[in-house]
């Protein structure tokens, strides 16, 4: 079936295309269109189920009813879960969401922001890689609402929904200390991202408070998994006193668990593990993996509500900064004792 366009409606009702457009965009009174004709057009549009193109509406109203969302990797469970919450919440208010993955690459992020702008999106929800502060500031200066989430860009004034990464990491390492682990290493990314620095600072605070020696291994973000496994394996093999590891991301933990297996070590019995950012698979592992869970649903709801408030001009003049707490989920990987066999 041929899709209806404004021209078809105009021909059927024997009025001009501009008259149809003015009515559909709520500008009938401004252009002297009678209530009777307006109602006639609206009833016909409802009858035939006409849906205007969002791009066309955007060109005529300056609003596309579309939100652009930039994440590090849309296939990552953390970001995809947040995106689902954002999409559902936005849709209930008549907005669509389009996505892009930056792969933590500044140039790619800038290209995506430009593509979103060319698409006439109304607002931007961004998990920013380093180096795009000026481009985000340009969006804000031009009047676009921007909500930054997951990682901060200090010095950039905009709405932000963040996680208390420092406290989450602190609790994770304090948990290992309480379980009597004495040589606790941290495997993290070689990254200038604010959230990674906060997680490292949380680790260092817990280690210093316990009077233990710090051991940190930084791994490049773009390292392929086999190489990442190899780097972690060599690190652990060269530090045989390590009895526990705090991984700053779940994908580093997956590589780390493989490295531990290759070394012939047993999780919980030979080496404890706690991970920042829970993964639905971690509780299914044997032994199950202790993790810091981020409030995914809250993050998605908060960023969407702030964005919708901005788009609907229903918000205070000042920017909002929301900092959410994490939850430590203790599982079998941090038991630090082998149960006696039942004879």
Please explain how this structure is put together.
The chain has 343 residues and is an alpha/beta fold. The protein has three domains: 47 residues, 434 Repressor (Amino-terminal Domain) (Orthogonal Bundle), CATH 1.10.260; 127 residues, Response regulator (Rossmann fold), CATH 3.40.50.2300; 136 residues, Response regulator (Rossmann fold). The chain is built from twelve helices and twelve strands. The chain has a six-stranded parallel beta sheet, with helices on both faces. Helix 5 packs parallel to helix 12 and helix 10 packs across helix 11. It is elongated and about 85 Å long. The termini are far apart. The C terminus is likely disordered.
Strand order of the largest sheet: 2-1-3-4-5-11
Question: What proportion of the residues is helical, as a percent range?
Answer: 40-55%
Low-confidence stretches: 338-343
CATH fold name of the largest domain: Rossmann fold
The number of distinct structural domains comes to 3
N-C termini distance: 74 Å
| Name of the top-level CATH class of the largest domain | Alpha Beta
Strand element count: 12
Query: H/E series, N to C?
Result: HHHHEHEHEHEEHEHEHEHEEHEE
Biggest sheet, in brief?
Answer: 6 strands, parallel
CATH architectural label of the largest domain: 3-Layer(aba) Sandwich
Overall morphology: elongated
Which value, in Å, is the CA radius of gyration? 26 Å
CATH homologous superfamily classification of the largest domain: Response regulator
